[in-house]
């Protein structure tokens, strides 16, 4: 694991809930830590190897989606990183990528293929999600007639993103860009969901981020990971309630069970919860990429 001080000689410009970003001059170094957050609060204990797992899943999907959309990845191989990274090669191996500098859009691009989470809560109240009317009589976790694009605002760490309708997304980023990222998001989701289904995983919903590099729209951040998506095992899928998952829903369910108020500070995690959460991330890595990368 990369400690918060082990790269102190590099130029840290942003520390997110999970990723640390360093300015390398012409490029950025993105390092996926083992931190884990739930309900927008970072837990006190890390999940061993989580950063490496997320990074490898993202690199896998960036490659798969390259024919559909350009992305910000320059390299995921430490040997290609700038000389300043060489003393940290061991710490960075597997959990980092060198990326182009992009100007992120101010919306999160959420695609839902199944009704769950905040979408389910919204549907129960209004029969709509982000202004999109859905059929009557849906059960929790039902597959939607077709995937829907349900954007949200992109807020700072510790502030919940807010679901918005498409017209509000147009106001934030411009209609042409909003239409383009909507279409790209639906295409990426369709391709990813179909491939995952062949491997026994339902991708119920996910979120993408896009940015501009020299005026070109590119896919950035992470792609179809257990942190940005709901992964359900196909073998146990039964609509009508919440589903077991490969993602951090297990951790959320534990935190709900102990009646945590979802405000900092987060409670300490028992060893079995840490181990079980790690196992779910590792299962997702193996299922999607076909490799456990020696973890």
C-alpha end-to-end distance: 12 Å
Q: Which architecture of the largest domain per CATH?
A: 2-Layer Sandwich
How many structural domains in the coordinates? Answer: 2
Radius of gyration (Å): 19 Å
Instruction: Give the strand tally.
Output: 16
Number of helices: 7
The profile of the biggest β sheet is:
7 strands, antiparallel
Low-confidence stretches: none
CATH fold field value of the largest domain: D-amino Acid Aminotransferase, Chain A, domain 1
Bin the strand percentage.
15-25%
Structural class: alpha+beta
The succession of helices and strands, N to C, reads EEEEEHEHEEEHEEEEHHEEEHH
Helical residue percent band: 25-40%
The coarse overall form would be: globular
Give structural notes.
With 295 residues, the chain is an alpha+beta fold. Helices cover 31% and strands 25% of the residues. Strands 8, 9, 12, 13, 14, 15 and 16 form a 7-stranded antiparallel β-sheet that branches. It has a 5-stranded antiparallel β-sheet with strand order 1-2-3-7-6. A hairpin with a 2-residue loop joins strand 10 and strand 11. The mean pLDDT is 94.
What is the topology?
Elements: E1 12-15, E2 19-23, E3 27-32, E4 37-38, E5 41-42, H1 50-65, E6 73-75, H2 89-92, E7 96-100, E8 103-104, E9 107-114, H3 117-126, E10 128-129, E11 132-133, E12 143-149, E13 152-153, H4 166-173, H5 175-198, E14 201-213, E15 216-220, E16 229-233, H6 249-257, H7 271-289
Helix pairs in contact: 1-7, 4-5
